[in-house]
UniProtKB/TrEMBL annotation:
<dbReference type="GO" id="GO:0005886">
    <property type="term" value="C:plasma membrane"/>
</dbReference>
<dbReference type="GO" id="GO:0046872">
    <property type="term" value="F:metal ion binding"/>
</dbReference>
<protein>
    <submittedName>
        <fullName>CPNE9 protein</fullName>
    </submittedName>
</protein>
<comment type="similarity">
    <text>Belongs to the copine family.</text>
</comment>
<dbReference type="InterPro" id="IPR037768">
    <property type="entry name" value="C2B_Copine"/>
</dbReference>
<dbReference type="InterPro" id="IPR036465">
    <property type="entry name" value="vWFA_dom_sf"/>
</dbReference>
<dbReference type="InterPro" id="IPR045052">
    <property type="entry name" value="Copine"/>
</dbReference>
<dbReference type="GO" id="GO:0071277">
    <property type="term" value="P:cellular response to calcium ion"/>
</dbReference>
<keyword id="KW-0106">Calcium</keyword>
<dbReference type="InterPro" id="IPR035892">
    <property type="entry name" value="C2_domain_sf"/>
</dbReference>
<keyword id="KW-0677">Repeat</keyword>
<keyword id="KW-0479">Metal-binding</keyword>
<feature type="domain" description="C2">
    <location>
        <begin position="93"/>
        <end position="231"/>
    </location>
</feature>
<dbReference type="InterPro" id="IPR010734">
    <property type="entry name" value="Copine_C"/>
</dbReference>
<dbReference type="GO" id="GO:0005544">
    <property type="term" value="F:calcium-dependent phospholipid binding"/>
</dbReference>
<dbReference type="InterPro" id="IPR002035">
    <property type="entry name" value="VWF_A"/>
</dbReference>
<feature type="domain" description="VWFA">
    <location>
        <begin position="275"/>
        <end position="476"/>
    </location>
</feature>
Length: 517
């Protein structure tokens, strides 16, 4: 909108070139360009850019709209540029972001309007149930043991198996269990594509006897939502041989229902906000912050491990939080004025409003706290987990989801209370990320992670796996490239958040709100 006018006798002829930056790298590569629109300062481009989206990565994009006087980018008039992360566009209201173009000194370059939508890759899931009647008898001593095999047709006329029912023993009138299959697997999203169904009699040696077949389509199957559909099972060889052959039985579609499988992006576009809270370990085992051996030590040339972990995770999550205000706490320190030990003191020293403005605000408050509190102990997680759980319990309708980042150096002191807190929190809209810094052994953290065995406390098991633990040392780049270390760390600790959010929504049957058109 309102681009600079660089042509003398007419308006500019804009085109937009999209550049992408590799994760953790600094090099920009051209990804593609829009069509050229002649003689306008307010172009609406038609050509779309299709990008793979990863919540856990900072996907930096650069948009350059040069006037199109030459085929080579450098030969064109420079109309400004805009930098944005893909997550910012997706996290913005209705996936719509307006960003000012900059780069031409002393001039207003106009704005660029970006719209992001998820490609609908046919996410519907079908549940159906079938039964059969008067199938051919294939076994010498008993009746048949029938089962069904579903095939979807391919573009080249071949068929690919996509589902097998269970075997129902010794009957010519089987009723199969209801089963679920993605529409994509059944017909590749083409509702009129042929779906072939074979009926077999199961044999122990694997040489199953063919009873017959019938063909249908997704569209035809879906009509069973309002009526039973009966298919004749035909055996082509029998049909050729016997003049009086009618069929080899019938198969009836008893029920057919369709559900949409929602994605993380559906919820974000529907207005779900990610609320990010930080908790930092201020126990004495970290070492004196003024000493280079301390895990809290920040040299003039490089951030501490704590600051790096905070930036790596926070800079991605902040794109999904509209107010960019992040509550930040410390634990395990003696705090002024009375020197009492606290396990959830606000880093900004404001108990009424512990929120900091942006990730930079959190970093500032963290560095300020290092100068005012006394590092002490023990390492207790439960108080800060319960604090965030209390906030998460206030709004459980799916519009808010909380992510707590705990950065710690050591062995946890309140393991039983922490397990209890995690089990309770697993029923709430929240996830917990734990980043372990320093050389300590972190076996207890692996137990909290719950990937192998679900966390339990006093006989109660966590409803969902909500904890992700990683040791920071696994991500330190050998060459000292901090940007790369941060990108690797963020990728691993954030990878489970979308699935954890979806698992909460699913267990509570919360559907995404419809984004306004």
């Amino acid at each position: 909108r309102n681009l600079l006018d660089m042509d003398t006798f007419s308006k500019s002829d804009p085109v937009v070139v999209l550049f992408v930056q590799g994760s953790g790298g600094s090099e920009w590569k051209e990804f593609g360009r829009t069509e050229v629109i002649d003689n306008t300062l307010n172009p609406d481009f038609v050509r779309k850019f299709v990008l793979d989206y990863y919540f856990e990565e900072k996907q930096n994009l650069r948009f350059d709209p040069p006037g199109s006087h030459g085929a080579v980018l450098g030969a064109q008039d420079f109309l400004g540029q805009a930098f944005v992360a893909l997550g910012e566009v997706i996290g913005s209201q209705r996936g719509r972001l307006e960003r000012a173009l900059t780069g031409v000194p002393g001039k207003r370059c106009g704005t660029i309007l970006l719209l992001a939508e998820e490609l609908s890759n046919c996410r519907d899931i079908v549940t159906m149930q079938l039964c059969a009647n008067k199938l051919d008898k294939k076994d010498f001593f008993g009746k048949s043991d029938p089962f069904l095999v579903f095939y979807r047709s391919n573009e080249d006329g071949t068929f690919t198996i996509c589902h097998k029912t269970e075997v129902v023993k010794n009957t010519l009138n089987p009723v199969w269990q209801p089963f679920t299959i993605p529409v994509r697997a059944l017909c590749n999203g083409d509702y009129d594509r042929t779906v072939k169904i074979d009926v077999y009699d199961w044999d122990r040696d694997g040489s199953h006897d063919f009873i017959g077949e019938f063909a249908t389509s997704y569209r035809e199957l879906s009509r069973a939502q309002s009526q039973f559909t009966v298919y004749e099972v035909l055996n082509p060889r029998k049909k050729c041989k016997k003049k009086k052959y009618v069929n080899s039985g019938t198969v009836t579609l008893l029920s057919f229902s369709v559900e949409s499988e929602f994605t993380f992006v559906d919820y974000i576009r529907g207005g779900t906000q990610l609320n990010f809270t930080v908790a930092i370990d201020f126990t004495a085992s970290n070492g004196m912050p003024s000493q280079p051996t301390s895990l809290h030590y920040a040299s003039p040339y490089q951030l501490s491990a704590y600051a790096l972990a905070l930036k790596a995770v926070g800079e991605i999550i902040q794109d999904y939080d509209s107010d960019k205000l992040f509550p930040a706490y410390g634990f395990g320190a003696k705090v002024p004025p009375d020197g009492k030990i606290s396990h959830q003191f606000p880093l900004n020293n404001n108990a009424d409003n512990p929120s900091c403005a942006g990730i930079e605000g959190v970093l500032e408050s963290y560095l300020q706290s290092l100068r005012t509190v006394q590092l002490y102990g023990p390492t207790n997680f439960a108080p800060v987990i319960n604090q965030v759980a209390g906030a998460a319990a206030q709004v459980t309708d799916g519009s808010q989801y909380h992510v707590l980042l705990i950065i710690t150096d050591g062995v946890i002191s309140d393991m039983l209370q922490t397990k209890e807190a995690i089990v309770s929190a697993s029923a709430l809209p929240m996830s917990i990320i734990i980043v372990g810094v320093g050389p300590a052994e972190f076996e207890a953290m692996e137990e909290l992670d719950g990937d192998e065995v679900r966390v339990s406390s006093r006989g109660r098991y966590a409803e969902r796996d909500i904890v992700q633990f990683v040791p920071f040392r696994d991500y330190v780049d050998d060459s000292g490239n901090q940007v790369l270390s941060m990108a690797r760390l963020a990728k691993d600790v954030l990878a489970e958040i979308p699935e954890q959010l979806l698992s909460y929504m699913k267990t509570r049957d919360i559907k995404p709100r419809r984004a306004d058109p």
